[in-house]
Amino acid sequence: MIDGEKNTISEDELHAFVDNQLSDERKLIVEAWLKDNLEDAEKVKAWALQNAAIGKLYTSAHAETSAADIAADVKLIEALSRRNSVKESNRSKPWRQVAAMLVGATGLVAAALAITTYQGEGKKVYAHNLPEVSRVSYSVYSGEIKHPVEVWSDEEEHLSQWLGKRINRELALPNIVSQGFKLLGGRIVPLKGAASAMLMYEDDFGERLTLIIGQDKNGVASSFRYSELEDIQTYYWGDSEYGYAISSRISREKMKVLAQALHKQL
Amino acid sequence: MDDFEKNLLQFMPNLRRYAMSLSRSAQESEDLLHDCLEKALAKKHSWRGDNLQSWVMTIMTNQFRNKLKKYANQPQTVPIEDEIIPTEERMCDPLAMDKIEGAIDQLPEDNRVVLMLVIVENCSYAEIAKMLDIPIGTVMSRLSRARKSIAKILDGHNIISFRRPL
Description:
Number of domains of chain B: 2
CATH topology of the largest domain in chain B: Rna Polymerase Sigma Factor, Chain: A
CATH architecture of the largest domain in chain B: Orthogonal Bundle
Strand content of chain A: 15-25%
Structural class of chain A: alpha+beta
Shape of chain B: globular
Structural class of chain B: mainly alpha
CATH superfamily of the largest domain in chain B: RNA polymerase sigma factor, region 2, helix turn helix motif
Number of domains of chain A: 3
Strand order of the largest sheet of chain A: 3-4-5-6-9-8-7
Largest sheet of chain A: 7 strands, antiparallel
CATH architecture of the largest domain in chain A: 2-Layer Sandwich
Mean pLDDT of chain A: 79
Shape of chain A: elongated
Mean pLDDT of chain B: 77
Radius of gyration of chain B: 17 Å
Number of strands of chain A: 9
CATH class of the largest domain in chain B: Mainly Alpha
Number of helices of chain B: 10
CATH class of the largest domain in chain A: Alpha Beta
Radius of gyration of chain A: 28 Å
Largest interface: A-B, 57 and 58 residues
Distance between the termini of chain B: 40 Å
Order of helices and strands of chain A: EEHHHHHHHEHEEEEEEH
Helix content of chain B: over 70%
Low-confidence stretches of chain A: 100-128
Number of strands of chain B: 1
Oligomer: heterodimer
């Protein structure tokens, strides 16, 4: 870092000075250098300002850890640790060893094991499945004329109870009439091997929108996310127990307003 | 909770922050954190008792790179949390902070990771070199590039030159 022969300070050492990674001795030498070398001093000042600003940005965004945060982290580590133990014990089961031997013999067994293993990584599958299930459900059911839903909105109470029971929660069917969309009805769709609720809404121009609500026991509260594929736009988000996704072909701005309205009611 | 898990617990804020600096999205950073913790817990017997934070961050870095490869062909997602959910706390100088955050977002991943490890996690250059499995010279060149890029972006907004963020 130091160019002794020319008695200069290298740029690497200037970085190390800013980042407080020099010995006390070298720090003094660099400080003396900066007094006489204003160009380097300016450089160091600008980097120090960057450091301070970035440090402040991240300190502010991740403020002091509260007791509740620590308790949540303890729970998370314990849950993941338990999950590992279960995986470990499953791995050692004799039937798995036999199945592993059969992998080479039949592609079907291999595929089945692959699915099992992948599903074992529950959260990952869920996070990537939710918007996909939402998009596909919209794509499959929104074009249906006669049977877009299994239970129509004229049986709202039954619909609410039925779907709520299948996804293990009380489900007040969200109302987005003030955003121009009336509830058509709902149905069950599969998500990560379990039932999730799909509600379908329609505006006066026949544009449809689907809402998926699926249970995710390992869920974490998350912000809104957006994805777009084949003209179908999907907004999705989650809380500690459920994931939510809406899909439609309406404008992104309109989708955003609808996502906000639904988020408030769910 | 065993000793390993207790040690892990004390680094959770750092790990969460590092996940965010890698993925730049609230949801993806939580996914990354979970995956990383799961892996670290599964491999805890292979930890040699040296710097645990650095060991777990190395796992996270590798998982993030693997994810990038795996999901390269998936539809793009865009974080929009700021558009919809009001941020809990805004900075005293939101304009400057937003620009700085924007500048960080624009950095190439390799440069951003080094910058965040240095500034936010206070890792030494040698630790970063070990963690990312790169020569220390590469750490320095990435750090230098990151700082120059940020300065260039911020100069365009007159942020660093005329405003003191603190």
